Amino acid sequence: MEKIVSVKEPTMHTQVPVNIGTSVFGLRYKDGIMLAADTAVSYGSMKKSKKSTRMASLSDEAAIACSGEMADFQELQKILKEKREGDEIENDGATFLKPRDYFNYPSRLNYQRRMKMDPLWNGSIVGGVRKDTGETFLGMVDLYGTKVEGNFLITGLGAHYCQVLMQNAWRPDLSEEEARRLIEDCMRVMFYRDKKATDEIQITKITQAGGVEVEKSYRIGSEWKLEFFKNMTNEFWRPIRIYQ
Amino acid sequence: MSGTGFDYECSSLSPEGRIFQIEYAEKAVETSSTIVGVRCKDGIVLGTEKIVVNKMMVPGTDKRIYSVHPSAGCVVNGLVPDGKSLMFRAREEATQYEKMFGIRIPGNNLAERLGMRAQLNTVYASQRPYGSTLIMATHDHIKGMGLFMVEPSGSCFEYYGCASGRGKQLARNEIEKKNFREVSVNEALPLIAKILLKSQEEMKEKKQEIELSIMSEETGYKHKILDRAFVDHLAAKAAEEIENEQMDMA
């Protein structure tokens, strides 16, 4: 019988993310929406940049935070900017510009791109507060175009580590201080567990009164002097294992 | 004007060295509504007057001022659809340039490209020139503000103040008389409304409308088309002033 020769397909560079940002967080709190991300961009396991902004304001009432391929994030920003400006100069009274639209548009875009086998490799969280009604919006889009809405959303590895943390601590009437502390807790867990995370985080607040505020990044402290870290991991666990 | 056979297409010159098709296009512009663009101390004002021909037309749907990109706007006269087509071309050029080079297109480049486009329509027998003039206000980070006028022949120059249409001469005189470069945009607006109303004197019996847009320091050099209520208010005031002047003269 004739031997079947497998033909190796050409490498599809667009189908492999290169510069990656890790998990982003979004949650509703009393005054509006809070988005958070750390500032690391990894190239494989190497941190290519520790000072990158992975979030952006889209209008005066909506913002986006992105994990995954950073080039695709920048492309998405460009596409949304073009769309917004195109709508603005039309000057016909019709507006595209509500927070929910900034969610629906990337979701459709991602679905289209995924069906072309050339996805935008992003998990993004879009948050917004409408200036006129005060209605808040928080949604998550993944690279397949799936839309998820919720009170607290996490992309990437964070969804595995911090989901329960959020579930237990989240209340609809979280104050800004509490929301910030919750996010910092989650970020600290991610810093301990996720090799692609850093302890420098950035937060974007969206409120009805203040609009979108992309804050400066700052470092959250971390504690490495714990007994667990001092001893070898196995040494730490051995006695416990034996006596069980 | 009779071309005696030399005016059928714009691919051939007449023995006197004229291209009649271009002149006819300019004629179409000259008999249409007046448009003006004026460069002021802190910005640029664009304006047009127009006659409401059909009473049943929904007001505000016959627009002559458009944004090209956030910091460029234009106003057209003559055959408005022709002007609109040129405007869409400008939008395309602007987005294409921004995609290619990552910065917003400089005003002079944009105007130049539009001029080239208009000129292209004057060299083929199968095409006719655009029957409209376009005045464009731009702002970029390289050269700052710029005011350009693209004519049917494809000529494109930068101006401190320019006008086109039926009230061209009058508007030009008025603009030259007043030194607009010492005047702020907000101060210039009523003056320009007055110029526009004056320039359509002979059409006075018909219902008239004006349209204005600004691009100034105040708007962050964003092109802003002024809303109808404000412009109508300005126009009413200007009309009143003109009437008073005429009373004084008489």
From TrEMBL, chain A:
GO biological process: proteolysis involved in protein catabolic process
Cellular component GO terms, alphabetical: cytoplasm; nucleus; proteasome core complex, beta-subunit complex
Principal subcellular localization: cytoplasm
UniProt keywords, alphabetically: Cytoplasm, Nucleus, Proteasome
Source organism of the structure: Halteria grandinella
Keyword Cytoplasm in record: yes
Full protein name: Proteasome subunit beta
Subcellular localization, as worded in the UniProt entry: Cytoplasm; Nucleus
Keyword Ion transport set for record: no
Automatic annotation (TrEMBL), chain B:
Pfam families: Proteasome, Proteasome_A_N
Main location (coarse class): cytoplasm
Regions annotated as coiled coil: none
A single GO BP: ubiquitin-dependent protein catabolic process
UniProtKB keywords: Cytoplasm, Nucleus, Proteasome
GO cellular component, one term: nucleus
The Proteasome alpha-type subunits domain, residue ranges: 6-28
Assigned protein family: Belongs to the peptidase T1A family.
Name recorded for this polypeptide: Proteasome alpha-type subunits domain-containing protein
